[in-house]
Design brief:
The chain is an alpha/beta fold. It has one domain (about 55-245): SGNH hydrolase (Rossmann fold). It is about 45% helix and about 10% strand. The protein contains eight helices and five strands. It has helices at about 1-25, 45-60, 70, 85-90, 105-115, 140-155, 175-190, 230-245, and strands at about 65, 95-100, 125-130, 160-165, 200. A five-stranded parallel beta sheet has the order 2-1-3-4-5, with helices on both faces. Helix 6 (about 140-155) links the parallel strand 3 and strand 4 (about 160-165). Helix 4 (about 85-90) packs parallel to helix 8, helix 5 (about 105-115) packs parallel to helix 6 and helix 6 packs across helix 7. The protein starts with a helix and ends with a helix. Mean pLDDT is about 90; it is low at about 5-30.
Amino acid sequence: MRKISQLFLIAAASLLFLTSARSFGQGADSTVNTAIVPVPRDTNWVARHEGFVKQAKYDQTDLLFLGDSITDFWQRKAPRFGINIWNKYYAPLHAIDFGISGDRTQHVIWRIDKGELDGLHPKVVVLMIGTNNARDNSPEQIAEGIKVILNKIQEKCPGTKVLLLGVFPRNTLKDTPAMDEAPAKINAIISKFADGKKIVYLNINDKFLGPDGKVPASIMPDFLHPNEHGYQLWADAMNPTLFEMMK
């Protein structure tokens, strides 16, 4: 019965998305920015979201990481991913990780709308999202999706500060030139969303680039996701700002 209800929920949301797309798309030159239209994914994804909602009700949370696989993999096994770094720095700070691999801005919007932040009052939310939108959305559209997420965080958690990270560099073998260029273009826009107080913007991308300006395999073996060394570089570059915000 629960599985049927989940499938119904996903079908209904998909229908709503298509209906919204038609209504927004009226007119000769109108296009829909899918990066801001909240949608769910499959049943396993919904189940993970529901787990986060339950976690939000019972955990003492001072620090929340929110995003996609790059955030999700903080808690995956070393040395490929970042669990050792997480346990060293963030677990003692009552941190939780609401990253889901494959998520785009529209999925995070849906998750927030459906209760993931309800009842939470973290000191800081670390947000990085948008790289998975790069194949289908323009940098301007992706930035708009990020802005919606920021607004929703502030609405749900008015006393919380947001550490907005610049979208990390990427150069996977399947990337188009436009996808490789997207992070810098997105970051140029979202950096303007910060006020230095409630929202602090931090770009640490230079820590991940080699002399040729590309992401080396020694930091991101697939040229997208950091390994343990990459997560250590991330922590080293982020922690001074983050710890100051946590005070």
